[in-house]
């Protein structure tokens, strides 16, 4: 490796972790074996997210968007499914990147787009979960206020605001994401600045803490307060609520916390690399696993709806039964028409033969 490549790699290694793993051209055999196992586990998690996420979120989008009556609740879950569905569509790019030993052959624009979609999914998902929890709290504890302001029009305003906010916060990925040729590998990484270590450090810290505070800590505190207050108020006032609906939303929130907490913790831990490279190996193993676990969240929500929500199960079965009914009716009608045509043709042929 030449002096220029060594210089670029030294600069690159200090800020290359975000959403992608650290690539090192020089590592011993035992370390390579361990990292290889970690990377394959990450690939398996991403593969599961893709295989289950595409049909699962597509089904939720189909029913909440086209088959069921438009309500405030269905709009929340529809947009949550849309965010997850868009993300899993881009997952094959990331899977290919890891499978090719962190070689990015797709160009700079897909490098930027792939990272932006991942950020957009993370922020929009947690924001919609926060909105769903706030909506549930206000609907149960302040029904008069909810009845007055909980309208489809207001919910659409909130939805547009959430998408714009998620796009704004995830926007830096479009600016900073870049590709770099290192040791015959094209890397997709965060190019905070090539020649100013202080600016690199500042941008990395700011973006990491904004992502943690806005995309995780603030929503987590809000969700916790909502559910603690809801539980307390329900017990105090003896309010009757649908336990299944409550556990459905709570399970979705818990799934998000379990999947995304390790990712944010490793992202913060990654900041220490600027000052101490002792934890390189830990981060090399931890970041791909936490990233794969975070991506897995995109396929869990539809599964949770089906397993927990009785209302979703009933409406899902009713919708499927309706689709099958129409399908069978169309097939039956087509069969009847075909049979009538065949009988008509046979009758006409008999008449011709008689006439002859």
Number of strands: 2
> What is the SS-derived class?
mainly alpha
Total of DSSP H or I helical runs spanning 4+ residues: 11
Q: What general form does the structure show?
A: globular
Gyration radius (Cα, Å) is 26 Å
Instruction: List SSEs in N-to-C order.
Output: HHHHHHHEEHHHH
Which strand-content bin applies to the residues?
A: under 5%
Unreliable spans are 1-27
User: pLDDT average, as an integer?
Assistant: 75
Looking across the biggest beta sheet, what order are the strands in?
1-2
Helix content: over 70%
**Oligomeric status:** single chain
Amino- and carboxy-terminal Cα gap: 93 Å
Major pleated sheet: 2 strands, antiparallel
Care to describe what's here?
One of its GO terms (molecular function) is G protein-coupled receptor activity. Pfam families: 7tm_1. InterPro entries: CML2 (IPR002275), Formyl_rcpt-rel (IPR000826), GPCR_Rhodpsn (IPR000276), GPCR_Rhodpsn_7TM (IPR017452). It is a multi-pass membrane protein. It is found in: Cell membrane. The structure is a single chain. This protein is mainly alpha-helical and 356 residues long. The chain is 80% helix and 3% strand. It contains eleven helices and two strands; from the N terminus they run H-H-H-H-H-H-H-E-E-H-H-H-H. Strands 1-2 form a two-stranded antiparallel sheet. Helix 3 (72-99) runs antiparallel to helix 10 (280-308). The longest helix has 46 residues, at 310-355. It starts with a helix and ends with a helix. Residues 1-27 have low confidence and may be disordered.
